[in-house]
Amino acid sequence: MNTFLEDISLFIKQKSKADSSLIRFAYKLETLDLEALFESLRDSEASLFYYSKPNEEKSFLGIGKVKSQHTAQIISSAANGNSSSNNSIVSVNFDPELLNSIPLVLGSEKFPLKKSESLWNDFEDSNWFIPQILILVNKEQPYLVFQFFGNNPELSLLESVIRNCSKNEKSQHNCSIKKIVSATDINEWTTAINKALLEISSQSIQKVVLARRIQLALNDNFNFSKALSTLNKKYPECITFAYKEKSSVFFGATPEKLFSIQKNKMETEALAGSIARGINQEEDFEKQIQLQSNQKDINEHNNVLSFLLSNLVDYCEAFNYDKPPQIKKLSNIQHLQTKISSTLKDGIDVLELLKRLHPTPAVCGLPQKKALELIKELEYFDRGLYSGVIGWYNEKGESEFSVGIRSALLKDNTLSAYAGCGIVEGSNPALEFQETELKFKPILSLLENEITN
């Protein structure tokens, strides 16, 4: 690592003057435990952005933020697919393979409703940034990328990260619950669902997605090294994420992709309609058949599919998707899933496309405006980044955005976990309550004394 710092210093000395180019220096590491590194840095002042795709053996950790008068321009140019952003980035010491699909801009968007509580104040409503340090692990090969403008980079964060890279010990400690601070109980839930069903029966709305929140005071420090590794192992089909700003960490394992773009190919999915897994193969298949034949779930799923297709027409062409829906099986739940692929039209701004698609009926409802009004009336808490967006994009027009579900916020040693479900004609409050219990499972199972009902 000392050689890496020396190479950076030599490069800076050779530069004749400061310019507006973003410099990216790459260094191949020997071994690295990315989850342990997140844990070791969580008490630092730096922003942390962890994103993992276990099934593809790919993960990355963004650390800190590049701050320069030129940063906003590159972020904007990359979002617009503007080729000028390519000319503003100088990549040094890069393996050619590393340059393929490397994230440039990381960030998030909150669910577009705000309450008067301060729980989510550490996160902006919309926040997209270039990390000062990006550590990528591709099939167990880690790389460290240091990014800066001009010829006077701030090296203190890099030196701190280098020191922490050697801390690969993964604690096996599970955090425990001190007390339940608050929880949406069955009576509150039933009242909200029945009010929603009245709106649906009056035909003022087709569907609304309502959520529950459980807040738990913890006895000791939550262990992200163990938690992220556990989520990766138990939910390899999902995207595991953890985003830290100031004293807050939003994290989870989401099964829901909003969309991704690679080489002008756009992929998204409708994911709606749920049922539990069976205790054996025979029961699991019976539940699958039940899900595939349940008209309520089919209608809910088709609402999401129609929304996506109608909103993508202005941005994409040549659509392909499965008929009928497939089944996406996770360790504790199974969903109706329709994968959609299409060709992206030229000159599309990915953040504009994101705003067109989010929030989908899978996390909001139909029609969207009326669903948002009803959520604001019936939910007593601020969703923040829960059911919001977390993801990345780069200067090559590539991107991946996921919906922040199966998730929780950790702040001041209080864990706020969220779970929701779609309410349509025929919904039963007790059954929907059971569905949210299933969706709490990925987060609550990380705790030593898990809540069970």
* Estimated helix fraction: 25-40%
Strand tally: 22
How far apart lie the N and C ends? 51 Å
Please state the second-level CATH architecture of the largest domain: 4-Layer Sandwich
User: On the 0-100 scale, what is the average pLDDT?
Assistant: 90
Give the tally of structural domains: 2
For the record, the CATH class of the largest domain is Alpha Beta
* CATH homolog superfamily of the largest domain: Anthranilate synthase
CATH topology of the largest domain: Anthranilate synthase
The number of helical elements comes to 12
How many strands, which pairing sense, and closed or not: the largest β-sheet? Answer: 13 strands, mixed
Give the class from helix and strand content and strand pairing. Answer: alpha+beta
Give the overall shape, derived from the CA principal axes: globular
The fraction of residues assigned to DSSP E strands is: 25-35%
Radius of gyration: 22 Å
Uncertain segments: none
Please give a quick description of this structure:
30% of the residues lie in helices and 32% in strands. With 453 residues, the chain is an alpha+beta fold.
Protein architecture, described:
The chain is of the alpha+beta class. The protein folds into two domains: 2-164, no CATH class; 177-444, 4-Layer Sandwich (Anthranilate synthase). Helices cover 30% and strands 32% of the residues. The protein has twelve helices and 22 strands. It has helices spanning 2-14, 34-41, 71-79, 84-87, 156-164, 186-201, 224-234, 281-293, 295-312, 350-357, 368-378, 429-444; strands spanning 22-28, 48-53, 58-63, 89-92, 105-109, 126-129, 133-138, 141-149, 177-183, 207-218, 239-245, 248-254, 257-262, 265-276, 316-321, 326-329, 333-344, 365-366, 389-393, 399-403, 407-411, 414-423. Strands 1, 2, 3, 4, 7, 8, 9, 10, 11, 12, 18, 21 and 22 form a 13-stranded mixed β-sheet that branches. Strands 5, 6, 13, 14, 15, 16, 17, 19 and 20 form a nine-stranded antiparallel β-sheet that branches. Helix 2 (34-41) packs antiparallel against helix 7 (224-234). It is globular, with a radius of gyration of 22 Å. The termini are far apart. 45% of the residues are buried.
